[in-house]
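Hey,
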Amino acid sequence: MLGVLLTEESAVVTRALVVQSCPEVARAVGATLAEAGFESLTVADGFAAVGAIDAWRPDVVLLDLSLPPLDGWWVLAVAGARSERPLLVVRAERAEIERAIALGADAWVDDDVHVVAASGKLAPALAA
């Protein structure tokens, strides 16, 4: 579970930026993260994502590649190489994963509605 990342002794809240253009999916992801003790911020486009990465300084970014008008590929090209935060690509097609990793993604997650499945990838990404 994502909550495993937070210990009872720790007062630190992990900040997760959710970059998702679909409001229903964004709400589901945000609720799952909140239940696990994460503080989350949701943005719906690439421009807002880059701004939030710089200004809000999340511990991890969950990035959907299909965003209007500036997509996740643009976010990876701009923020991937310079970001100190782990960038997890959400719902990428298998053929896109290699390209996303080359642009700076740290990992990928199959299904953003069930973010709990990302726990195995969030823990090592946050430990780095």
